[in-house]
Design the sequence.
């Protein structure tokens, strides 16, 4: 009666109480669980009457209609879960299964086992399970003809663990599961094809990321020493470039100075530390230094305290990342060129000596109005808003500097710029911009810098494809807007 997929699911049902088969279709699983004696009672639900009619025919055919309750229900909404020990949701997309589990209208007992068989997007389902505080306790790959099915067993957990993107893709199969090895090989090929497509489309960051995911799907992750990571970053974004007042470098060490997972964030906040801990990251790499001014005491609410308490190291790259070629301002330069097109060689904006500079000045191929430039900036930086001063004339010569560069408006005026893009602009600077007839655009401190994280991930994954590098979900604008 059952194919290999359903046989494995039936095998995983505990039989300790009532089993629920969500989206039962023909009720083959429900009938087999009762007929085999594994379950004394099964609830078979479906969202449509048609499948329930088919299910009714099946249970009557096998004479188990007194032990299989058929319920018309959207997910678990109309299912009585009292006495239920196993919930089976099979043959649906991962997104649909995740939505059913996450539906708060159905109160699920804490001791219930979930047996899930997603037809697509297993990675999304795995990640969602951990967000809902479930733990994947078993995972199997079942091969039937040319298809390989994923079957996940999950139970409620007191831990607050979260999955990285790589964790969610890799899964929790037994190391000796041959079907799982074949499945991962296919997944590695799929990820490699995505990488190739992104490379052809000119998306270097995305291409490298999927290439690294493909590598880890084939080879798994591995440990890298933090000393090696620091040395590599120093070779790309030399720490010696930092301004005298800055405090970039390895600011917090961990216990063994090794790293298998790294989290990238603009700021090391308590939320970022919590995310790193929940995802099992041993290292956080940030733009803004977690230690800047000298401290006379460290409180429990200080992110430094939490880093040390949880054994997480911190490398911070501030002005050296802003100054270095290909750093924060280099990313902005590339994105402006992609969107608007520039002519000639970019000129240094704020010259620091020794051939180093903060920001660039560019000439556009075609002139642009102030509002058009603001719209482009909004797209590039992912801003919710862009504040700007109006300028009657079209704009060709543009200066930009990431972060808090409002005080350098005078430099943009002196160098004959039509517009200046930066963040953290104060009131008096806006007045000066209007008086000087220069278009000033404030795209926010956060937004003009956070975009460098994707470039950091690219260079790290290119050098260390075995390292699980995650951009923090908590690296978000600290402000809300109405």
Sequence:
């Amino acid at each position: 009666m059952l194919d290999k997929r359903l046989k494995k699911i039936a095998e995983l049902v505990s039989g300790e109480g009532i089993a629920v088969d969500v989206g039962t279709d023909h009720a083959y699983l429900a009938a087999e669980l009762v007929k085999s004696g594994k379950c004394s009672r099964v609830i078979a639900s479906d969202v449509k009457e048609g499948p329930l009619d088919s299910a009714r025919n099946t249970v009557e055919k096998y004479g188990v209609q007194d032990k299989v309750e058929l319920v018309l229900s959207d997910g678990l909404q109309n299912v009585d879960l009292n006495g239920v020990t196993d919930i089976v949701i099979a043959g649906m997309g991962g997104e649909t299964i995740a939505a059913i589990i996450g539906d708060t209208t159905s109160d699920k007992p804490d001791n219930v086992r979930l047996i899930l068989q997603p037809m697509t997007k297993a990675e999304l389902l795995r990640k969602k399970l951990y967000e809902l505080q479930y733990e994947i306790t078993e995972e199997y790959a079942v091969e039937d003809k040319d298809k390989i099915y994923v079957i996940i067993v999950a139970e409620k957990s007191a831990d607050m663990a979260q999955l990285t993107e790589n964790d969610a893709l890799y899964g929790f199969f037994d190391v000796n599961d041959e079907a799982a090895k074949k499945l991962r090989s296919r997944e590695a090929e799929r990820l490699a094809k995505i990488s190739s497509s992104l490379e052809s489309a000119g998306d270097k960051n995305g291409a490298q990321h999927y290439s690294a995911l493909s590598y880890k799907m084939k080879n798994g992750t591995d440990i890298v020493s933090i000393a090696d990571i620091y040395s590599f970053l120093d070779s790309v974004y030399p720490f010696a470039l930092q301004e005298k007042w800055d405090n970039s470098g390895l600011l917090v060490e961990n216990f063994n100075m090794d790293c298998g997972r790294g989290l990238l964030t603009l700021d090391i906040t308590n939320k970022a530390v919590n995310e790193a801990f929940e995802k099992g990251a041993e290292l956080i790499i940030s733009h803004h230094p977690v230690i800047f001014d000298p401290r006379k005491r460290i409180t429990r609410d200080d992110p430094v305290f939490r880093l040390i308490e949880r054994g997480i190291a911190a490398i911070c790259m501030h002005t050296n990342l802003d100054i270095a070629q290909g750093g924060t301002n280099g990313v902005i330069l590339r994105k402006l060129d992609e969107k608007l097109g520039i002519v000639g060689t970019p000129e240094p904006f704020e010259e620091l000596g020794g051939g180093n500079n903060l920001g660039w000045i560019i000439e556009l191929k075609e002139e642009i109005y102030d509002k058009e430039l603001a719209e482009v900036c909004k797209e590039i930086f992912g801003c919710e808003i862009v504040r700007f001063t109006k300028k009657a004339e079209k704009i060709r010569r543009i200066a930009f500097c990431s972060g808090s560069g409002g005080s350098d408006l005078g430099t943009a005026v002196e160098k004959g710029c039509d517009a200046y893009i930066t963040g953290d602009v104060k009131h008096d600077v806006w007045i000066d911009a209007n008086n000087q007839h220069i278009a000033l655009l404030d795209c926010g401190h956060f937004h003009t810098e956070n975009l460098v994280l994707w470039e950091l991930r690219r260079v790290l994954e290119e050098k260390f494809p075995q390292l699980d590098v995650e951009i923090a979900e908590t690296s978000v604008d600290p402000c809300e807007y109405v």
